[in-house]
Amino acid sequence: MIRYCSTGYCSTSALPSSREVKNLPMWRADGAILTLLLHAGPVEFLYYWFHRALHHHFLYSRYHSHHHSSIATEPITSVSHPFAEHIVYYALFAIPMVTAGVTGVASVGCVAGYIFYLDLMNNMGHCNFEFIPKWVFSVFPPLKYIMYTPSFHSLHHTRLRTNYSLFMPFYDYIYGTVDVSTDDLHTAALKREEDEPQVVHLTHLTTPESIYHTRLGFAAFASRPYATKWFMWLMWPVTVWSVMWNRIYGRTVVTERNRFEDLTLQTWIIPKYKFQSPNLKIRLVDGSSLAVAIVLHKIPEGTSQVLLSGQASKVALHVSVSLCEKGIKVVTTNDNAYNQLKRSVAMSNNARARQNLILSKTYDLQTWLVGDELSEAEHRKAPKGAHLIPVSQIPPKKLRPDCIYHSTPAMIAPPSLQNVDSCENWLPRGVLSASRVAGIVHALENTQEHEFGSRILNPDAIWQAAIKHGFQPLNLKNP
């Protein structure tokens, strides 16, 4: 029995009883035909005019402009709407399913298929990548009126006043709102040659499970590179297969494409678990100079001494020498780190720098430079309110809620950097690590020198260049 519920003037949706839901057939052809007709008719028609209304300046400025903040769209853009719009869309998309239920022709396959169709077409239209071949429309010309393409909808996001249709463009053709360049753009998008990048950010796998932390794996893991979940053990067949595939196939994969000013940027994943620098005619940049500058700018004003903890890396050594030259005492409790620092300071022409390097067993300092392999015992000796500033790309675990943890060396990307659509490691969205920023800045400045191995350039110069090109300091702290 169909039960109706009405309040006041509004009769709400008619829903099947729980018994009827359990007894739904897997498939009914008449239900599928009804769903198709209702979608092509009322749903597409009402959506078209509702969408046009949303582009009136009153509604656009208050609601729909949020969706159009994405000019270079991506699949997630398809569901980026204000709450009020979502309610209208749910009501529209419910028309075929509710009608099928009321008339008794609903089926599991019909409901599931319609929901799958909505998600598939919605994501496809916003993927910003044209892949529908032109021959499809040549073989069956009417298809252009009942199926849109990614390039069709991309024109709506760039021109705003054209191509309003949901998934079936025939209402745009009927009412004269189809963009005149739709066919030309579709052809041009399919013929577009691959951009040759000027800057490539090289990454590589570290463990068999690290494949799940890339964009090819689980997007939610992007900001937690070394985290593990219990269900990853259940995926060991896939993990083993990926290891075998990497060994056999072994080709570099492009996982991200960006544009900044006149540069084409790409991120590559090298399918190797160890990586050696290739012998190529390119300039190699590891970002150490910029990392040094970023760490130096994180030192709280008025600091007179800092503690270097963990292992002394290339960045840690250069930061320590710079601080010693500025008259700030650098204290370390590690004999090996002290000997490395002593050799580095000895190469400095600043006589005062040698006096500011101290080997001590004291931990009662408010500013810590945290290197790799910081032990938990040493970590817990930090005094209350201490600033823990990483000098490596791996942040320390936050064991002390009463301490202030700074971010790893990174900078905020300028708004003009396109397609930064995921988090990098543990950094917030729109923030890039020092190594990525340095590669971009070196290309913009046309720097001819390598920065690799023990070599380091002028930290202050690369910092000023980064600021000049719109990158901003990241003052992210977690008290």
TrEMBL record:
Signal peptide: none annotated. One of its GO terms (cellular component) is membrane. Pfam families: CER1-like_C (PF12076), FA_hydroxylase (PF04116). It is a multi-pass membrane protein. Residues 306-473 form the Very-long-chain aldehyde decarbonylase CER1-like C-terminal domain. InterPro entries: CER1-like_C, Fatty_acid_hydroxylase, Sterol_Desaturase_Related. Residues 40-177 form the Fatty acid hydroxylase domain. The keyword Protein transport does not apply. Coiled coil: none annotated. The keyword Isomerase does not apply. Keywords: Membrane, Transmembrane, Transmembrane helix. One of its GO terms (biological process) is lipid biosynthetic process. The chain crosses the membrane at residues 32-50, 87-117, 230-249. GO terms for molecular function: iron ion binding; oxidoreductase activity. It is found in: Membrane. PANTHER family: STEROL DESATURASE (PTHR11863). Belongs to the sterol desaturase family. This is Uncharacterized protein. The lineage of its organism: Eukaryota, Viridiplantae, Streptophyta, Embryophyta, Tracheophyta.
